[in-house]
From TrEMBL:
Originating organism: Humidesulfovibrio mexicanus
TM region(s), chain numbering: none
Lineage start: Bacteria, Pseudomonadati, Thermodesulfobacteriota, Desulfovibrionia, Desulfovibrionales
Name of the featured protein: Formylmethanofuran dehydrogenase subunit E
Domain Formylmethanofuran dehydrogenase subunit E: 16-149
Gene Ontology MF: a single term: zinc ion binding
Source organism superkingdom: Bacteria
Keywords per UniProt: Metal-binding, Zinc, Zinc-finger
Matching Pfam families: FmdE, zf-dskA_traR
Every Zinc finger DksA/TraR C4-type domain range: 169-199
Length: 201
């Protein structure tokens, strides 16, 4: 079934992100899946994103999950995977299926490398643009179950954020959340100051 997110909401996602692309389409469809399975956006909806790619912007826009509210959790795992929960209840994890890309990466990736390196010809840049648009359209028209491997989860979502004391770094004098401090030779340090003196890195 084609994407059920309204054109107005899709336009808002594009404006927020700054451009349209296949990655944004993945996030739009992941958010659509979350809203379909768990109901409308609200403060008790939690998203865990295992990537920092474009689609996270669409997830923020459509689910109202944000880092600042503590209901969007970023885990730097480099996976096109998204977990959604209602606080206090079960949820699901959706992983982009490799076959959903329809083999287009075989042509796109070399072209992207050439474009980034400045070696792509005008014809190759146009081919890359056409492939990206084709992939984007494909994602927006695909059945969600064909696009994602979906696993129901019985585990609870991440805990809500805690209000913690701020401590002063003994080196730079800046205040830092207690849970992000390190102890070194009897001193309280922020992470950058700790990394500057710790030898086992």
């Amino acid at each position: 079934m084609p994407c059920m997110i309204s054109p107005e909401q899709i336009s808002a996602c594009i404006a927020f992100h700054g451009h349209e692309c296949p990655g944004l389409a993945i996030g739009i469809r992941a958010a659509e899946l979350a809203l379909r399975e768990l109901g409308p956006a609200g403060p008790d909806l939690v998203a865990v994103c295992e990537t920092d790619m474009c689609g996270v912007d669409a997830i923020m826009m459509l689910t109202n999950c944000t880092v600042g509210k503590g209901n969007l959790v970023f885990r730097d795992l480099g996976k096109m995977a998204f977990t959604f929960h209602r606080r206090g209840g079960p949820g699901f994890r959706a992983v982009l299926r490799p076959q959903s890309r329809r083999g287009m990466d075989e042509h796109m990736v070399p072209l992207m490398r050439k474009d980034i390196d400045g070696r792509a010809t005008d014809a190759e840049r146009q081919e890359l643009l056409d492939l990206r648009k084709q992939m984007q359209r494909s994602f927006m028209a695909m059945e969600l179950e064909d696009m994602f491997d979906i696993t129901k989860l019985e585990s609870l979502p991440p805990r809500p954020p805690s209000i913690l004391e701020s401590l002063v770094c003994d080196t730079c004098g800046e205040r830092v959340m207690e849970s992000r401090t390190r102890r070194f030779q009897g001193r309280t340090l922020c992470i950058p100051c700790f990394e500057a003196v710790e030898q086992k890195r």
